[in-house]
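User: Need the bound-state model for magnesium ion:
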Amino acid sequence: MNAQLSPVPQDALSSFLAPAQQLLIDGQWVAALSGETFDVINPATGEVFARAAAADAADIDLAVQAARRALESGAWARMPAAGRRNLMWKLAEAIEAHADEIATLESLDNGMPFAMARGIAGMGAPETLRYYAGWAGKINGETPTVSAPDHHVYTLREPIGVVGAITPWNVPFAMEVQKIAPAIAAGCTVVLKPAELTPLTAVRLGQLIQEVGFPPGVINIVTGFGDPAGKALVAHPDVDKISFTGSTLVGKSILAAAAGNLKRVSLELGGKSPVIVFPDADLERATQAAAEGIFRNAGQICVAGSRLYVHKDVFDRVVDGVVDRASKLKVGVGLALDTQMGPLISQKQLDRVSGYISSGSHEGAQVVIGGERIEGQGYFMQPTVLAQTNRSMRVVREEIFGPVVCAMPIDDADLERIARIANDTDYGLSSSIWTRDISVAHKLARRIKAGTVRINGGIGLDSALPFGGYKQSGWGRENGREGIEAYTETKTVSVAL
Ligand code: NAP
Ligand code: MG
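Assistant: Bound-state model below.
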């Protein structure tokens, strides 16, 4: 489809894929102390195509110690900001230079369409690094005005310390870079535990980190399972902060486990984001965006617009439009360039999504299109639109994390009522409003309890825009100034003159 897209042939990757991957600890590639490895699976085929090291608590401890040494030695935090910035730029350039390869690995490991993976490796991730490289020399304290005379007071923003970063499988490379970039720009050191289902691009990132010359221990990459590796990182007494992206359930367990040393915690969790379409909207664009918003990455996106509320006067037109797009969506292997939607990540996820659709059907939902897994190899699911759904159904209340949208009509112009419907969820990550009435759009934006409100398609994600959740969608914000301040402690210094 796109002549500029060129995945790397898989045999050209064999020198990377053939040996079992190792852990990057203290600037060295090492096997797990236990010698254990685990299978890396291509979700488009169900086949094992690589192996990764399975770290446990002992490996995590070595990685944390290395990060602690890199922090305390001053090799990173006390490096002039320009030095940190320059290394981050070099890493951005190295990622760009290897974008085809990283995107190929990501598409094989996660299943996402190559174009999406290429966009992240070639543009999104380098941009994140450069954006935060720019902040490295611009983290300032303040000089507050105090009530006592003859005192000089100032604040410092210091790196929080050793950061444990834990990431999910849905958009692996983007998430890994999004965690590392602000942390290292702030002068922190990092132990990253990527998702077990998608370890490969984190390992490749580690190789590039080595190549561009980061001091040992500044970024450690430790693949393995949530239990024991993730758990050990969260519980480790020498970790100062956990930055976690994943499910709300695991997020809650992390809060409890972090209590041991009261480490700081940032959480980016699930969502059940509403899309609200008024009759005066540009219906063509709204329909296109509603379809993309739920089918992109097979719905495995935390901000997926999974509750579609359309005014009754245009309900049929919009839903028919989404159904039409679903029917034409090319579902297939991520590396085939005409693929628009890849597989789900695993058999477990396929069963989970199918289970939700059955549950919806039992509760009276109508499957307008899709609803079935696609027979054959790999974990493919049809793009699915459910109608006749209501607020009490599990498909409307719970995050499905698959290509399944629940369409529901709204029937009045009372914004308070529409806001109550939009807010009728435990989550509060994102939301979309489609209307040409600017007053309606902004009034509703203020009433929706979500970290992001997109009006008429507005920007979803950008390094400069704070991103995160209200309610059970998380704690704190990533990106923007808040995203880097989350990796700092404020120190107040006061002097009697
Ligand atoms: P998950 O099961 O919560 O896993 C996320 C990460 O945590 C993985 O690396 C996982 O390791 C690890 N982990 C699991 N149990 C742990 C424990 N007890 N202690 C420490 N770490 C542990 O979520 P997922 O299934 O990978 O991802 C899907 C979920 O993530 C969805 O709910 C989605 O909404 C959410 N998500 C949110 C955002 C956001 O920005 N808000 C972005 C993407 C995804 P294993 O890989 O070994 O399980
Ligand atoms: Mg995989």
